[in-house]
Amino acid sequence: MRSIWKGSLSFGLVNVPVKLYSATEDHDVPLHQVHDKDGGRIRYKRVCEIDGETVDYEHIAKAYVDGDDTVILTDQDLASLPAERSKDIDVVEFVPTEQVDPIMFEKSYYLAPDSKSNKAYVLLMRTLEDSDRTAIVQFALRQRTRLAALKVRDGVLMMQTLLWDDEVREARFPELDETPRISDAELKMSRQLVDSFASDFQPEKFSDDYQEQLRTLVEAKLEQGDKLDTEATFGRQTDGGGEVLDLMEALRRSVAAQRTPSKASAKKAPPAKKPAAKKPAAKKKSA
To answer: In the chain, which residues fall in CATH 2.40.290.10?
Structure first.
């Protein structure tokens, strides 16, 4: 993994140099928009409404519109803000873990020590584990001040960014203003139904059926010859593009090797494994 941010995690006088890594990844099948008639790639251009010219990213700035007036903010303007320049993750308090509402969780990151000595890092981990509390931290990342929950997961510090309080909508639905009468018999039957489904949560038992079926569909179309020449359709692939394809293939094989299909999913798509065995040849041809 490649770190996306480096800084220091501070609580009291303890300073822990850390590197930030994204803890999750997207496994969706990459799809492009094309012209249905000839398969030509649909591309979007960044066109200025005043002069009609295509604008490179390096010349794109942000702006705030205030009625008839517009304020342009350059990357240099935004980088000058004190919060953006800060490289500190500040622990502001330690709270009981159950008080952090899961609805506020946004994105998860791993924090790894960025020092030859990991003593301060391990000290903070042990402190969190022994106290059974979650650290609430504040930091700046990608032009945003963020709030996050810091905890321990599998022997590593994990940070989950949190939504701000005013970003969580209030749950108010007129349909729930009146509470219907629930009989003891109905409640008992409902509990029996829950008991019949009772189990320990094991994430590895579940898989993304839609993405698996989409991959099976793509592989079947490749095998049947229902395809277009990639270079003619999208243009010659760069070395970087080839690396992305290789990475996706490696992820697909890893998921397929570790996944144990349930009886239900086996009934839904019995031929799913057959095209997968021929996938490497199809990939080599399109690379």
So the answer is: 5-27+81-166
Mean pLDDT by 10 residues, the chain (287 residues): 87 86 88 86 89 90 88 83 75 92 94 89 90 90 86 94 93 88 89 89 86 83 74 51 44 55 46 46 42
Q: 110 and 158 in contact (C-beta within 8 Å)? A: yes
Do 102 and 134 form a contact (C-beta atoms < 8 A)?
no
Where do we find the tokens 């929950």? 149
7, 35, 29: which is closest to 19 by C-alpha? 7
Cα–Cα distance, 172 to 160 (Å, whole number): 27
Pick the CATH number of 5-27+81-166 from 2.40.290.10, 2.60.260.20, 3.40.50.300, 2.30.42.10: 2.40.290.10
Query: In this structure, are residues 270 and 216 in contact, taking their beta carbons and an 8 Å threshold?
Result: no
